[in-house]
Amino acid sequence: MATIGTNLQEARKLLEAGQVIGMPTETVYGLAGNALNLQAVTRIFEVKNRPSFDPLIVHSSSREKVSQFVREFPPTAKLLAEVFWPGALTLLLPKTNAVPDLVTAGLDTVAVRIPNHPLSRQLLQELDFPLAAPSANPFGYISPTQAIHVQTQLGEKIPYILDGGPSQVGIESTIVGFEGGEVIVYRLGGIAVEDIEKIAGKVRVMAHSSSNPKAPGMLKSHYAPRKPVFTTGFETLTKQYSPEQIGILAFQEPFAEIPGTNQFILSPEGSTSLAAQRLFAGLRHLDGLPISVIFAELLPEKELGRAINDRLRRAAAK
Ligand code: TXA
Ligand code: MG
Hints:
By secondary structure, this protein is an alpha/beta fold. Helices cover 31% and strands 18% of the residues. It contains 11 helices and 15 strands. It has helices at residues 8-16, 38-48, 63-66, 75-84, 101-104, 118-126, 147-154, 193-200, 234-240, 272-287, 304-316, and strands at residues 3-5, 21-23, 30-34, 57-59, 89-94, 109-113, 131-132, 160-162, 174-179, 182-187, 204-205, 229-230, 246-250, 263-265, 293-296. Helix 8 links the parallel strand 10 (182-187) and strand 11 (204-205). Helix 10 runs parallel beside helix 11 (304-316). Threonylcarbamoyladenylate binds at residues 25, 27-28, 30, 54-57, 90, 92, 104, 107, 109-111, 113, 115, 133-135, 172-173, 175, 186, 214-218.
């Protein structure tokens, strides 16, 4: 099993030796390694069991450091970075040769983010290389929002997990790219499209495609628990299964037909950001119950509700 701790020196020593570790961020926990070291990057793909056509996000601690491996920073990207970095925004930017092709799956752009988490920011400040870090879950499964989630799934394969407490945002970063003067959202995430549009103007959301060549990792079936998930057809489920066999992920109100112990309420107050924070832990909780299926209630299609619904629909696509 991995050691769970808050020892930055230990984390740094392991990363400098080319090893990969669990790292907290405000969105979800990452599986981090030296982005400029082929051996470390290869190990990330192995540990995650991730196909090599799915590129990684590179994490850094400052705009200055980012400019060392990015060729060009379009004006709109600069504006967005000024407002949302550090934070849950990933920008797709033209890369320099310093970034191995393995990191970007051969693409000409690299995904970059400055995370807003005190521990990982300090770690990144102390390192003289950026960290490639996909979410620290086996490929296709729910992302981890606590150190213990990383331990349960990848603990046998990594030496150390830096514990930064529960992730405050709870869903992955919003991925934004720039093409022919257009701003494109490739993955809905922790920063709402409405907030991005306040800065960048109208954007195009392309995050729903299952075969989007620009974003090979955005597979339709993703973020899935082991149990089947449904987001529609509750009536039909109640005919096929007894109430005891159905788990509920509800937004605000419990479902009257189903036992309370089978239900996880995301936010009784109706806060979409609290719902995001609790989403993956809720799915994990339900996945561990002695039930047969999970019904997940969709949220109103606005703010972080859009990103949450995107995750739920993908979980249901399996
Ligand atoms: O919040 C997050 O973004 C977390 C934390 C750890 O930072 N990371 C994360 O990484 O969610 P991951 O690997 O689970 O998802 C990264 C996504 C993938 O779907 C991948 O296809 C896409 O980013 N991606 C990476 N580089 C890309 C690129 N150059 N062009 C298009 N999509 C890219
Ligand atoms: Mg992921």
